[in-house]
From TrEMBL:
Its cofactor is pyridoxal 5'-phosphate. It comes from the Eukaryota. The modification N6-(pyridoxal phosphate)lysine is found at residue 196. This is Cystathionine gamma-synthase. Belongs to the trans-sulfuration enzymes family. GO terms for biological process: transsulfuration. GO terms for molecular function: carbon-sulfur lyase activity; pyridoxal phosphate binding. It comes from Coemansia javaensis.
Length: 402
């Protein structure tokens, strides 16, 4: 590496692929070729920079090598890129062939992938993540959890998994580096939907598996070359481009989200009457319809929450949820928010709000998932205030008609 391996994350994001540079261009060129000329007389010899040889895009491309070098440096493992987050998840299952999976709360698409795997491999059992681990050979944990943004204790699941002889897979899509490093808490494999924060601009679909072991990563790459499950050349280039700014984007999104969570939660609390507090009309208008706000920063834990700080030394994820009493109220607010676009997905530079029940029948009907983008906090705060006031007005009018 032309950059010291002890360099900090923002530096690695810009320079970790320095050794793979083969041209004078400072920015990696967009390469769309699916095939590469053999070096003269030897189809195995380098034909691209130093020690690099490429034949055919299904097997590997210069952009994939660069993006994997950067991702591996940032995530502290060996990265393998796929065409989507769910292809990455499926590839982990096929690689490890678990017979009994302990599955925690997980994005509905991941649960579908596990179902797909079960259909293909007979007699696979799936149990809850807090069940006994006898016979369990893979534990699949999502942290932070989509859609609540709450954090789970990776270290405690790693200890339990390893004691049972199982591997721990962590889907860390909602907290990419520099917000979390699951290998430090004992994860064996980390999965990200790169469509979210790693891509960061809602303009590419990709996924990544990061293995602690180089051997596992090589085996994943071999299977990827056979199947062609990698990401397309333009998407891979966009991903590499986005990784350069990962640290500043994600830190800013994390900080804005923490302030927005505190604000919306303060609206909810101020609307609750107690023996010491009589809510004003203004406080009731803003907060009386909010049933719950969930995020790592508000999380209560039975056994203490010190693991949350330990897992997130640099801040929490930028996804949180706001629950209303009814699905109608949730959808009203989603449509009234102006800067938060009403659309699915997370992790982009634009704030998004999604009504998860529309996708996932196991979600609460009144829940909105919020993905905080890079807009100024004051503008996002004003957006929430106007949407909540509009809801209150709407509810008052509806009440008056009855
Ligand atoms: C979006 C998401 C995925 C799936 O990724 P795709 O890139 O959409 O295939 C997996 N896990 C989590 C937590 C996600 O949010």
């Amino acid at each position: 590496m032309t950059v010291s391996p002890t360099a900090r994350l923002p530096t690695l994001a810009v320079h970790a692929d320095g050794d793979l540079r083969a041209t004078a261009e400072v920015v990696a060129p967009i390469g769309v070729s699916t095939t590469f000329s053999y070096a003269q007389g030897d189809i195995k010899a380098s034909n691209y920079g130093v020690d690099q040889h490429y034949h055919y895009a299904r097997i590997g491309t210069p952009a994939t090598a660069k993006a994997e070098a950067v991702l591996g440096a940032l995530t502290e493992g060996h990265a393998v890129i796929y065409g989507s987050g769910l292809t990455a998840a499926f590839s982990v299952l096929v690689e490890h062939r678990p017979r009994k999976i302990a599955l925690g709360e997980a994005y509905f698409g991941v649960r579908n992938v596990v179902e797909q795997y079960r259909r293909l491999v007979p007699n696979v059992q799936v149990v809850g993540i807090d069940c006994a681990y006898d016979g369990v050979d893979m534990v699949w944990l999502e942290s932070p959890v989509n859609p609540s943004g709450e954090v789970r204790d990776i270290r405690s699941y790693a200890l339990r998994a390893h004691a049972a002889g199982a591997i721990l897979v962590v889907d860390a899509t909602l907290a990419p580096p520099p917000l979390s490093y699951p290998f430090r808490q004992g994860a064996d494999v980390v999965v990200h939907s790169a469509t979210k924060y790693l891509g960061g601009h809602s303009d590419l679909l990709a996924g990544v598996v990061v293995a602690r072991s180089a051997r596992v990563a090589d085996s994943l790459r071999e299977a990827r070359a056979v199947l062609g499950t990698g990401s397309g050349s333009l998407e891979t280039w966009l991903l590499l481009r986005s990784l350069r700014t990962l640290a500043v984007r994600v830190r800013q999104q994390s900080q804005t989200a923490a302030r927005l969570v505190a604000l919306v939660e303060s609206y909810r609390r101020s609307a609750v009457a107690t023996s010491c507090h009589v809510p004003s009309a203004q406080q009731l208008a803003l907060g009386r319809h909010i049933a719950a706000v969930r995020h790592a920063s508000l999380q209560l834990c039975a056994a203490g929450c010190s693991f949350i700080q330990a897992q997130h030394p640099d801040g929490f994820g930028a996804v949180f949820s706001v629950t209303f009493a009814t699905s109608e109220q949730a959808r009203f607010v989603a449509q009234r928010l102006r800067l938060h676009r009403f659309a699915t997905s997370i992790g982009g530079v634009e704030s998004l709000v999604d009504w998860r029940y529309g996708w996932d029948a196991t979600s609460e009907p009144g829940l909105l998932r919020v993905s905080v983008g890079l807009e100024a906090f004051d503008d996002l705060a004003a957006d929430w205030a106007q949407a909540l006031r509009a809801l209150d007005e709407h509810e008052r009018k509806a009440g008056a008609k009855l």
